[in-house]
Specification:
alpha+beta; Heat Shock Protein 90; 5-stranded mixed β-sheet; 4-stranded antiparallel β-sheet; 8 helices; elongated
Length: 379
């Protein structure tokens, strides 16, 4: 639990650091653009002086020709004539009645920068370099954002793949390790019955032991299916829910009321599932519900169809889940219990989403009132 709290904090720290870096970059770029804009205005003023001065024609010509970056239009307001234009493009500079005239009208409407020299007016735009410099922070932000998003996606995909391999390896090894003692226990049960054939009490105990061993076999079979594509069959969901209810109710407090659909009163609803894995998911939800209620309350289930999905809602009247943890509870290792590894809901999510192509999520939860988990299975 602390790990995920720290993980959330680090995300905020990184986001704040990124914002600070972006603000510093934008501040510095704004400073540079203001300086460059000031320099460009000075250049235009010098160019203006060169155009209006007649003492040194060579100097005027030199100053005018030195401007190769700032787009300028020299306009006579009395005659409505465009005298000269520079730095809009080699062909466009001489198109006074076409492109330059339209550009002049745009500058007038937008209140463009200008310098007046008697009846003549010099309209000018900021240079391409200045424009690019103004948009540089946005481009930089998009570039860094794309890089971070791609990196996060790549690392998340690699980490999830590694987790899947670890899950599958651990599950299969667990199933393998359970196999030997289960086989031995079955042999000992048969031997016990053979040794005391006339003792009904021993036979009754042996039968109960066999039931528990059968349960262990089921658990081993579940683990063996992790990491491989399970076989899906069309099954009545109500039958699976009833099996889960019967098993869990025998092990729950009598103060817990189970409100499950009665099979004889409902129409069958079918979905393609692997029974062993699906029952494992439901049992995990019911076990968590029992823990959340502290031995007293109600647990229920509801089955219905929605679009192309068969939906199963499992609800309880437990202590509820804070809204900020609705997604975190499915992370491996997350647990609010003093005991446990926090793997139940993570396994449930993998079983439903990866093996059944469905969805599982917290549909509703209020602290102190209860929680509803929703499972969506394709028809």
């Amino acid at each position: 639990m602390d790990i995920y709290a720290q993980k959330s904090k680090w995300k905020w720290y990184l986001a704040i650091a990124g914002i600070i870096i972006l603000l510093l970059t934008m501040g510095f770029t704004t400073y540079l653009t203001s300086k460059l804009a000031e320099e460009e205005r000075k250049k235009v003023e010098i160019w203006t002086q060169a155009m209006t001065g007649h003492d040194d024609f060579t100097l005027s010509l030199s100053v005018m020709q030195s401007n190769t970056t700032i787009p300028i239009i020299l306009y006579d307001s009395e005659t409505d004539e465009i005298i000269d234009a520079r730095n809009f493009g080699e062909e466009r500079d001489f198109d006074h009645d076409g492109f330059i005239r339209k550009e002049l009208e745009r500058l007038k409407k937008s209140g463009g920068k200008r310098i007046e020299v008697g009846p003549q007016q010099i309209y000018y735009k900021q240079s391409t370099i200045l424009t690019l410099l103004q948009y540089f922070p946005i481009f930089q932000m998009l570039l860094i954002g794309t890089f971070i998003a791609f990196g996060y996606y790549s690392f998340s995909t690699a980490r999830r793949g590694e987790q899947n391999r670890v899950w599958a390896g651990m599950a299969k090894e667990t199933a393998h390790q359970l196999g030997t003692p289960i086989s031995a226990m079955l042999g000992w049960i048969d031997l016990l019955k053979t040794m005391r054939e006339e003792d009904e009490e021993i036979h009754e105990i042996a039968d109960e032991l066999r039931n528990d061993v059968a349960r262990l076999e089921l658990i081993a079979d579940r683990f063996s299916k992790i990491g491989s594509a399970p076989e899906l069959k069309e099954v009545n969901i109500y039958d699976e829910l009833e099996a889960c209810r019967a098993y869990m109710q025998r092990r729950a407090s009598r103060r817990v009321q189970f409100n499950f659909p009665e099979i004889e009163k409902v129409q069958p609803v079918y979905a393609n599932i692997n029974s062993h894995l699906f029952v494992w998911v439901i049992e995990n939800l019911l076990r968590n519900a029992l823990d959340a209620m502290g031995g007293k309350g109600e647990i229920g289930a509801k089955v219905y169809e929605e679009a192309n999905y068969v939906c199963v809602d499992v609800w309880d009247t437990g202590k509820g889940i804070p809204s900020g943890k609705w997604k975190t509870i499915f992370e491996p290792g997350f647990s609010t219990k003093k005991r446990g590894w926090g793997l139940g809901l993570s396994l449930a999510e993998r079983i439903i989403e990866e093996y059944h192509s469905g969805k599982i999520f917290v549909k509703e939860s209020k602290e102190g009132e209860g929680t509803t988990f929703a499972i969506r299975l394709p028809k």
